[in-house]
Prior knowledge:
Blueprint: H1 5-23, H2 45-59, H3 65-69, H4 74-84
Amino acid sequence: MKMNVFQRREAIKAKLLDIINHISEKKIIEIPEHSSLADHLGVDSLDRMDLWLSIEETLKVDMPEKELRACNTVADLIDMVERHMKG
């Protein structure tokens, strides 16, 4: 069964929550899309590298690192992953 746009976005968001909880010292239960990676989630520059590698490995996407550096919110991350997912 193929996911609709909302389901796909929610699935990506759930995976990102797992990844962020894994690399961050914070344990986040819910992750609003407007959340700032740095301010709300505590993702620093070293965490961004871990985040980039984990996203690529977990979600099977190839993304330029410079695009990740431009992401400031969870919504930015989701949009970036959606652009690079196949199918």
